[in-house]
Design brief:
- The chain has 410 residues and is an alpha/beta fold.
- 39% of the residues lie in helices and 17% in strands.
């Protein structure tokens, strides 16, 4: 590759100030791709005035576009009543069933913006992300129009995404097929998701690569312990992913007298689930806070709770698992024991595994973390493996791909 700086246009609906692990993934590309090789612009979504993040020594531009669309998905940024949450969730389901493209207004503005900037800044590559589907559509339309390579960053997959209902999956099949036919390369987060794409699109020779999520902070913790056994959950609950079985296991341990001091923290977690009355006093719901503050809470916890319901789609890590690994506190993992998240935690020696529906196994996993706290011990993690999941190292996978595409299209 010569010394010409290549222009990379990132098209995404997730970028700060939107707080999401999806935003963190895209931010890591901006932060850690070589500034000597790549000049980056980001087309992002924000319906409110937004200021782009600043990273010392890194020069890039973010263009925020609103979504002037009448029918939009309801968001869950603020705490609401259980009933109000259910109403908003039902409304979102109705939009999905009706096949409403809730980001089409943003997509039209993005197309116009790309037409405007390409006169003075024609990109050499487009990286388009999923979700939302509209970001991929914008990427495909403009990659074809400009005659440049497109990379699709699919994260957890399109059709084989457990959060989608059957009708939504049927509609998304056409999008997935178009992406596989248009993109020069596909990025996704696990080997089973790669295998799915290869099996369903055997006649295509699209370059499909694994690029996992990761953490973006110095790994490790202070080694201190709380006076009260403190468990933290920092993910999201939706669909069948709820903490009911965890609460049942906690109740059994409290009745047995095995747990005497307890605090369960939910930083930034929407309360869309039932908390048993007898556990109300142990649960602490914190407001949405920035990523660095979440990291501090994780590092100061005595155990970290992970809940992943069993799904027919394999290859689901949950991006939060990598923050948990980086904090190096014991993980109580209530997951599919045959899927990638369980294997990763075991390989990293980072916690205790229990099946999603097995209350006795969950109680045993909680007890394992409890005993470490009682003895003031931390898990003997595979530190060298955990360090490979820093986003700086993972972004090198994207850079290698861009370098290869640069050589092909010189």
């Amino acid at each position: 590759m010569n010394n010409i700086r290549r222009k990379l246009l990132i098209i995404t609906t997730y970028f700060p100030p939107v707080q999401s692990v999806a935003s963190q993934r895209i931010v890591s590309f901006v932060k850690y791709l070589s500034p000597e090789k790549y000049d980056i612009k980001v087309l992002a979504w924000s319906d409110e005035p937004a200021v782009a993040p600043v990273f010392p020594g890194i020069s890039f531009e973010v263009i925020y576009l609103s979504n002037p669309q009448l029918l939009k998905r309801s968001t869950f940024k603020k705490q609401t009543s259980y009933f109000h949450h259910k109403v908003k969730a039902f409304y979102n389901i109705c939009l999905s069933v009706a096949g409403i493209n809730e980001m089409s207004g943003w997509g039209r503005l993005a197309d116009a913006e790309i037409t405007r900037i390409q006169h003075d800044w024609k990109p050499d590559f487009i990286l388009a992300t999923y979700p939302y589907a509209e970001a991929l559509r914008v990427g495909m339309r403009n990659a074809r129009k400009l005659g440049i390579p497109m990379i699709a960053d699919l994260r957890d997959g399109i059709v084989n995404n457990s959060s989608h209902r059957i009708l939504a999956r049927f509609r998304l099949f056409s999008l997935e097929k178009q992406v596989m036919q248009t993109a020069q390369a596909i990025l996704t987060v696990s080997a089973p998701l790669i295998e799915y794409l290869k099996q369903h699109y055997q006649n295509l020779n699209t370059d499909i690569r694994e690029l996992r999520n990761g953490f973006d902070f110095a790994p490790g913790n202070s080694g201190s312990f709380n006076e009260v056994f403190t468990i933290t959950y920092a993910g999201t609950f939706y669909g069948g992913r709820k903490p009911g079985q965890f609460f049942e296991a906690i109740k059994s341990l409290l009745i047995q007298g095995r747990i005497k001091k307890l605090r369960i923290r939910f930083p930034g977690v929407v309360r869309n689930f039932h908390v048993p009355k007898e556990l109300e006093g142990f649960c602490e719901f914190l407001p949405r806070i920035p990523y660095d503050k979440i990291v501090q809470i994780l590092k100061e916890s005595d155990a970290l709770l992970m809940v992943l319901d069993k799904s027919s789609s394999k290859g689901v890590y949950s991006a939060k698992i990598f923050d948990y690994l980086g904090a190096m506190r014991p993980i109580i993992a209530i997951v599919d024991k045959e899927d990638v998240a369980a294997r990763l935690i075991q390989d990293c020696r980072a916690g205790f595994i229990a099946g999603f529906d097995d209350v006795s196994e969950i109680a045993k996993a909680i007890t394992g973390a409890l005993e470490l706290w009682e003895n003031k011990q931390l898990p003997e993690c595979n530190i060298s493996l955990i360090k490979t999941f820093h986003r700086k190292d993972l972004a090198q996978g994207l850079e290698s791909l861009l370098d290869e595409l640069s050589e092909k299209h010189e």
